[in-house]
Specification:
The protein is mostly helical. The chain has two domains: 58 residues, Arc Repressor Mutant, subunit A (Orthogonal Bundle), CATH 1.10.10; 140 residues, Tetracycline Repressor, domain 2. The chain is built from ten helices and no strands. Helix 5 runs antiparallel to helix 6. The relative contact order is 0.10.
Length: 199
């Protein structure tokens, strides 16, 4: 939330523009969470703004989705970093990171679905590089300290971790596991995957 002094420094127009962008992104996110079509018109109505205002910030739905993905990634990175991955034993840090990020996954999953359907695979992977980077640093530390397996690459472990996260979310959505059980299964599986030893 911006303070009055910050708004004076930036100028009233910029402050209004920033509030509008947040309102637009929040509106689009709510629509996606409820599995409704997040068209520009629908987003404008949900945000309480005009279509002209939405178009003044986002030229089309694709640009809006890209901005949603960028914001979701920033939140995910903040959640991962809040778990202090550099502190303590790598396996303990990994457990903290999985737990810290879990609460953000459901919100971001619908954004991910919509973006995956309309954005390129390369674009989606690039947008997630910051998340991958945080996990990668922990994996590399764990491998250096001989706590994590080194018979496969650090990058492959990161890819497997993210795939398991998405699988856990799908199990919850399908009603196969409740959220707590999915988090427990995910944590056990990821930790065992990372600490396993090859022949």
């Amino acid at each position: 939330m911006s303070t009055a002094s910050e708004e004076r420094t930036r100028g009233p127009r910029q402050a209004v523009a920033e509030r509008n962008v947040e309102a637009i992104l929040d509106g689009a996110e709510r629509l996606l969470q409820s599995r409704k079509q997040a068209s520009i018109s629908a987003v404008a109505t949900e945000a309480g703004l005009s279509r002209v205002t939405v178009y003044s910030h986002f030229r089309d739905r694709r640009a809006l989705l890209e901005a949603l993905v960028e914001r979701a990634v920033r939140r995910a990175v903040a959640a991962l970093e809040s778990a202090e991955p550099e502190r303590g034993a790598p396996a303990d840090a990994l457990r903290r990171m999985v737990a810290a990020s879990w609460e953000h996954l459901d919100r971001n999953e619908e954004i991910g679905r919509a973006a995956a359907a309309e954005l390129s695979a390369d674009g989606m992977r690039r947008s997630h590089e910051a998340v991958r980077g945080v996990i990668l640093m922990l994996v590399q530390r764990g491998q250096r300290e001989r706590d994590f397996r080194a018979d496969v690459t650090a990058g492959w472990l990161v890819t497997c971790c993210l795939a398991l996260v998405h699988a856990a979310v799908e199990e919850v959505r399908a009603g196969e596991l409740d959220s707590d059980a999915a988090l427990g299964a995910l944590t056990v599986t990821v930790v065992e995957l990372f600490v396993g030893r090859g022949e």
